[in-house]
Amino acid sequence: MIRIKNGFILIETKNSSYVMKVNAKKALMNLYYGKKIRYVDELDDTVTDEVLSDHNYVMFKNTPEYPERKRGFYDEPCLSARFSDGINDLDLIFVSAKKTADDGLQITLKDRVYKLKVLLKYKVFYESDIIEKSVSVKNEGEKKIVLENFLSGAITLPHSENFVLFSQWGHWANEYRKEITPIPHAKTVIDNNKGVCSGPQHTPFYAVCDKNVTETSGRVWYGFIRYNGNFKIVVEQNSGSVVRVSAGVSDYDTKIILLRGESVELPAIINGFSAGGLEKMTVSIYDYEFDYLLPRSRANRAIPIIYNSWYPFEFDVNEEKCLKLLDKVKDLGAELFVIDDGWFDGRTDDKTSLGNWYSDKKRFPHGLEYISRKAHEKGLLFGLWVEPEMVNPGSVIYNEHPEWVLRYPTRTPLKFRHQYVLDMSRDDVTDYVINTVDRIVSENSLDYLKWDMNRYIAETNPEKCDFYFKFSNNVIKVWKFLNEKYPNLLIECCAHGGARTDFGFLPYCDRINRSDNADPIDVLKLHEGFTTYVLPKLAGGAGNVASEINGINGRKTPLDFRAKLGMTGSMSVGINLLDISDDTFNALKNYLVRFKSMRADLHNSYVYRLKSAFDDKNGNLAIWQYAERTGKAHYVFVFANGVTNRDRLNRIKLRGLDANAKYLCDGKVYHGETLTEYGLNIEPYGDYYAKIIEIKKI
User: Whole-model pTM?
Assistant: First the structure.
């Protein structure tokens, strides 16, 4: 709900209020964001942007809705502009506020002197307690304007000195690590400057929480950026103990030039508030994804069980092997056959041929379309791996268009993983990528495309001061094309693991390879970190049921543990089915049958973290409750290894059940009240213990 009255602007969700006020100097100020309040007119309207001596701390209590770089404002600005006369001072005043046709809000600001206009756009997701904000900036004058900072928005928190910051950090094979730290009286910056991705060192996500926040209690203000490239999140507690969070596109090595009449649309940021701890935050984010963000044509489609050639065979794939595998995959009960890296001309390792996007005739004499046809005849879907933003030296595209490769003319090009980056800031390169993936999809009748990206940007195009911004937007342009032309094509977002786990790609993909690490013990933390803000149905890669010995750390784990953990996400198989015992094959087949019986519920579930893997120093104990959104079914997953006797005796209280309803659990009938207030006896025993408890509402 949106109300505009007496200078107050109120955005209301089911459980939160967001209040702005135009002050006497026509500046738009933020008065309040938090738990829903009724008497908005009683809020203190003395908030000011007046520049006074810091003796009375007024200057530290300045709370602009969209902070600009201006005289007397010393906190992090969202917008900084340099005008043609060299002045880099902004002074934005309120012009108008109006409701939009989609029940949103649009606020117009302009500079007092210069011809610069800012549109603040708000979209409200009432039931999810989420407000989506975006910004456009327009040059309405004759002379160019250079934007030097261009964040999409900020939130100001109620006065408190007891907040902590929840964020994530990581690296390859060790993504989504949870970190909770006090907020200092200084700036804390979470950012990414690698150009082609949003992580995995830091994810474009934050949550500011009450100091003693838990899964079920405490206030949480959280946010994301709907962007796929360099980002910046600034969490700042100034000397007046005002906490503000600003977020958007990073200004790292970037400026945006606006010529006469030009404008720029900045990516949306998503803000939410929870008064019910971290669990309610996760539930609200899931609702936003379920009901709005996922690709609409495929939002409710079950993710098929995937057999991927990489884990068992890597580059050693050929026509004969794939044809033998098709029968095995069909018999196993998997639904999608994917040939990973190694299918194209000359590709025998990661040092060569990237950019030769035609099937290797020596290994696939009848072409990949032949494999695709055979898969479809057996009732299987068919998919391929690609990495179209990169090339190896010596590839066809590298030799034909060396100017397309990012390099500095005075330097030797820097190789990572034996490959270079194509300059996707160029429209001709973007067109080439579009035409290439279009041909690959159409020629091979693909049902599935696994899009990978395995290195960062080290050189830029020095002719473009907005290079990073342009690069990211053009990558999304390709993904938009694929979604529009092939509405039934399932797309996996894979970037050397989880480097593109962000809300920029989420509207265009169906599955995210969250890590290259399939070790089950490591996956406990990986999965929990990932599902903090991403639906489990999108969780790929790390949940792969691979061989019993993990290739990254050498750990050996039993099939029961690997298979049950695989059910918590988008299930996939990466075992060599051509060299497997009948007993193992049949056991795996039964796990797939069980998963299919649960999949519709699991893919439509919230995740409650009953026992966090991060609470255990070694990450050896995790208990998660998957709660189907309508409440009809619940599944408790228990994973434990080397637990103490005390852990065995823990009674776990479930959440989200109807107190008066009856539930069938392990052949017994319980009232919801019993399961939530008294709990279930969970007794993990032995090494690599895994159990699934099904709870169905009667």
Answer: 0.96
